[in-house]
Amino acid sequence: MNDILNKKSRTITAGLERSPNRAMLRAVGFGDNDFNKPIVGVASGHSTMNPCNAGIAPLADRACTAISESGAMPQIFGIPTVTDGISMGTEGMKYSLISREVIADAIETACASQCMDGVLVVGGCDKNMPGAMIGMLRLNIPGVFVYAGTIKPGNWKGVPLTVVSSFEAVGSFRAGKMSEEDFIGIEKNACPSVGACGGMYTANTMSSAFEALGMSLLGSSQMASPDPEKADSAADSARVLVAAIKQDLKPRDIVTRKAIENAMSLVMATGGSTNAVLHFLAIAHAAHVPFSIDDVEMIRRKTPVLCDLKPSGKYVAVDFHHAGGVPQVLKMLLVNGLLHGDALTVTGETMAEALASVPDTPRADQDVIRPFDRPMYAQGHLAVLKGNLSPEGAVAKITGLKNPVITGPARVFNSEDECMAAILEDRIQPGDVLVIRYEGPRGGPGMREMLAPTSALIGKGLGESVGLITDGRFSGGTWGMVVGHVAPEAFEGGVIGLVEEGDSITIDARQLLLQLNVDDAEIAARRSRWTQPAPRYTRGVLAKFARTVTTASRGAVTD
């Protein structure tokens, strides 16, 4: 398949003695000596609606200045963002995954229609990263991703906080385990600065993985958004991009099968979000790289968890950064044969060359990053479970659990809202297996994240004793006996849609099994009686997404 933009015709003004294009560009600051310079798009996700993206404008400005100083012409344009932490638990959350596709479409549209020579994307919240990467890979013009940075940790009575602390506090307060003073204190102090959610949640997972992918500068992904080094990194990224344009170094030269394996290895080693599985399946699709959900399991089996990071660990992203960050973990993977050192990076160096000066082992004065021979866990934490409930696969975060096996009665809910009400009304008991269905890519539509119910379970002390399965997704802040991305989804006739109240369900992380303990004849009889429900939306972006989206096991892509 040809690139969206043909290199010979990319720059609108290149080589033209006289053109109406020039009149338009003069109006936005082009002078006589600028028309043969590369035009570089700067896609800005700035938004004052959320802390994740509220610090982006200064970073985009620094990038534009560096692009100009490097002999190119920056042209800034906006991309939308959905803030999961604000929309979580509401109907608005259905737009979160959809925003990944909207962002990709916006970047493709802006760059292709204006024949830009390269693009620098600055994003903050969860879907900014995969949306940007999908857009850059579709275009296949030189590109670089600049992460807006992480938030600094909050503090209440000496306890470090993240935004997830607020969600878990809801369950604790409702269960009578927390005072109103502490409940309000946590809410007021959880988010003290601009920047994305502070644990190894989805935003920090994807930004750190982009370092391993080769599409962001090493060491840039876990910087705090307000700190001066973050703006310096944006400028450095811009200079690297202009050099890549001169070398004609394009995203699909960098994002190969080896690069995607490197990125998923980093996700496993850092204890990253389940959403990384969905997003890297989509990124591989955009890159024309064969990569399946079964490849994720292959990487998990050989990659240890090396970092003690929230949500199930102790530390936050700024701690990780100060301990050596992504470069330190990548070097450990490299020297132990778990990283492709010959994979290319956006600087033009190989990964091995870029990591040459990084120590082989982590510093002894910190315990955020464990030595390779003393990992948190011997194998990765994101497992692909299969069985009659998920023949295409489902994704579970299996580390940090005392008992990774549960068999219990199904408590069936046809939406997240129904389940949340049952949890808050104390209708859930230890040993139950909650089934939240019709929240998949098409049935939701949009695969809402279940942070509200999973956090409420933890707040009520049920995180270790209750299982939960869903055809929706989980926040990167989720932990517990939870399994998401169940495919096929209920709306498509998946077995999850045939579960009845009280059925026995087994979640077995050791055997990688997700099983409805009902015989095949009964399942077949139920299927014969099942009818697909009417779509929840028939107009607008939610309806369009539902009509075009693929199954979660293929990344929930729309093209």
Short note summarizing the structure:
With 559 residues, this protein is an alpha/beta fold.
Q: How is this fold's topology laid out?
A:
Elements (H helix, E strand, L loop, with lengths): L19 H7 L12 E6 L11 H14 L3 E6 L5 H4 L7 H19 L4 E6 L4 H12 L3 E5 L6 E3 L2 E3 L1 H12 L5 H10 L12 H12 L14 H20 L3 H4 L2 H14 L4 H13 L5 H10 L14 H6 L2 H11 L15 H4 L27 E4 L7 E5 L7 E9 L2 H9 L8 E4 L14 H9 L7 E4 L11 E6 L16 E5 L4 E4 L3 H10 L10 H9 L11
Parallel strand pairs: 1-2, 1-3, 3-4, 9-10, 10-11, 11-12
Antiparallel strand pairs: 5-6, 7-8, 8-12, 9-13, 13-14
Helix pairs in contact: 2-9, 4-5, 5-12, 6-7, 6-18, 8-11, 11-12, 11-15, 17-18
Could you please describe the fold and organization of this structure?
With 559 residues, this protein is α/β, with parallel strands linked by helices. It folds into two domains: 36-152 and 193-324 and 331-354, Rossmann fold (3-Layer(aba) Sandwich), CATH 3.40.50.2300; 382-554, 3-Layer(bba) Sandwich (Glucose Oxidase, domain 1), CATH 3.50.30.80. The protein has helices at 20-26, 56-69, 84-87, 95-113, 128-139, 163-174, 180-189, 202-213, 228-247, 251-254, 257-270, 275-287, 293-302, 317-322, 325-335, 351-354, 416-424, 451-459, 520-529, 540-548; strands at 39-44, 73-78, 118-123, 143-147, 154-156, 159-161, 382-385, 393-397, 405-413, 433-436, 467-470, 482-487, 504-508, 513-516. The protein is globular. It starts with 19 loop residues before the first helix and ends in an 11-residue tail after the last helix.
